[in-house]
Amino acid sequence: MSTKAVSAIRRAHDLGVTHYDTAEMYGWGAGEQLVGRAIKPFRDDVTIATKFGMTKQFGVNSHPDHIRQVVDASLVNLDVDHIDVLYQHRLDPAVPIEDVVGVMADLVTAGKVRYLGLSEATPDALRRAHAVHPISVLQTEFSIFAQDAIPLFPLLDELGIGFIAYSPLARGFLTGAVRAADCYERGDFRQFMEWWNTPNFHVNLRIVERLAAVGEERGVSLPQLALSWILAQGDFIVPIPGSRNPDRVAENIAATDVELTDDELRRIADIAPHGAHGDRGSPSPWLD
């Protein structure tokens, strides 16, 4: 296991972070084991989220028996007696959402899970799921580059559902260290994303440069600007930037102390009114 990653998680805790997100598919158990090892000294002070529903072939599987098997394995991997937040990683068209949430609710009754969540779910699925058992949180990609979740916010407010923003730094584009797709190893996911495609890459790079200039004027880094922008969109939103570097973790957490002005928010909106050029890679089911 990565000693540096464990150190990053523990540094986050020292700086006040109390929620940690992982999933079965992040290393097929290895990611959960790492998180479990890292948070063990302060398990009772934090919440852990994990997910089920993906296959190693990047398909989906939310059949009831599979859900139970994955959750039992996650409990072992995390070395905990309960999971604080359990997500369905992606909707499974072969299994009605009512059946999926019914199994998840049984896991709550059994004491294995406390709260339920969905990831990249449609408005219809959210409503139907919430009717079976309260859904506490929706997780979806959200950043200055990926803004297509904004139309969902009124529904989340109506149902009292929180929002977890994954990839808040736009899969690395908003870290200030972005490179062209052909600079990464062969098969890297960036080589298949429209954000990195020509001519999108050069347009998006210009957006990054203009955003970085806003941050420089304010005295904050580009990642801090990007994270503070997310926090400014609503107090029901929590971004989950990932990093194995303890110093990067500290830099990201410092964004919580940055309150953007109305003028700065307007400038960001002018620079990236609809996000990045090109599709974000993951389908947005509510836009179909």
TrEMBL record:
Gene Ontology terms, MF aspect: oxidoreductase activity
Lineage: superkingdom: Bacteria
Keyword Zinc-finger: no
Xref: InterPro entries: Aldo-Keto_reductase, NAD(P)_OxRdtase_dom_sf, NADP_OxRdtase_dom
All copies of domain NADP-dependent oxidoreductase, residue ranges: 4-271
Protein's UniProt keywords contain Repressor: no
GO cellular component term of the entry, any: cytoplasm
PANTHER family: AFLATOXIN B1 ALDEHYDE REDUCTASE (PTHR43625), ALDO-KETO REDUCTASE YAKC [NADP(+)] (PTHR43625:SF40)
Protein name: Oxidoreductase
Organism: Gordonia spumicola
